[in-house]
Amino acid sequence: MLLALPLSAQELNCKVKINSDQVEGTYKQVFTTLEQAMNEYMNTTIFTNNQFSANEKIDCRLFFTVKEYTDGKISGDLQIQSSRPVYNSTYTTTLINFKDTKIEFSYQENEPLVFTLDRMESQITAILNFYAYLILAVDYDSFSPRGGEPYFERLKTIVQQAQSSGESGWKAFEDTKNRSAVLAAFTDQATQSLRDLLYDYHRRGLDEMSVSPDKGRAKITETMDIIRQVYSSAPMSVGLSMFKDAKLDELVNIYSKASSEERSKVYNLLQDIYPTEQERLEKIKNGSEKQ
User: From CA 90, how far away is CA 141, in angstroms rounded?
Assistant: First the structure.
């Protein structure tokens, strides 16, 4: 078995895709080389000291939509997605599904992307490092209680270094959904219980459902209280929308076979937090979706 699954220091199985359809002009080779460079960076950089076998690598995707390109300056939106397998099943669950709308960096064709730990090498590598470590932190938290702590500490350093650069997307209180706000959602006192949710929802909830669907679902129901508490403390936290975008469709399926009492409890916990998602919340309440 060990021979069949060679160990690797690299942690991510990341697919990067760039869409430049919104940019006028015929010369698009720069985006091809950038896509190649980002793929190589995310899949060859060693971000931790841990050993991963090939089947343990974290599946993730980066979708970069370029909106402007002028004199080597590129800006647009970056969609970040990551997932993890659920124990004793063929099902994979989404951990992160987040769109960063503050992506701006300079890039020249064939420019090397260099990883450094002790300083900010460039805006583009700082962004890639931030999301690589966020993917790692959230994944580790989902397997052990606050297991992603070393990577959240690394994220704090990245944000501090980037804030000193004055670049967009990093400033504290610049807006409620930039990278500083994402870090705050998992580390501020008022909202860091989202990290406990990651473990309880996935390890004690989803992973348990293959053995006992009712027991696993009951633990997931308990985690909805954490969402309610975060909403009470910080109703504008980006952590709430990150949870919704990653989990709301999944919750519809989880509660399709739950008791009416359990479905109503979850519906009542979530309806005030996500008032624009009434259609999906009604599906939870009514159990209209099949697993």
Answer: 21
Q: How far apart are CA 281 and CA 26, in angstroms?
A: 45
Residue owning tokens 């709430």: 240
- Asked if residues 125 and 114 have their Cβ atoms less than 8 Å apart, the reply is yes
The 10s digit of each residue's pLDDT in 230-268 is: 999 999 999 999 999 999 999 999 999 899 999 999 999
Q: Which of 195, 190, 115 is nearest to 151 (CA)?
A: 195
Query: Which contacts of 181-184 are long-range, i.e. CB under 8 A and separated by 24 or more positions?
Result: 181/237, 181/238, 182/98, 182/134, 182/238, 182/239, 182/242, 183/152, 183/155, 183/156, 183/159, 184/237
Residues pairing with 7 in the sheet: 53
pTM above 0.85, yes or no: yes
Pure H helices in 45-122: none
**CA distance linking residue 80 with residue 78, whole number of Å:** 6
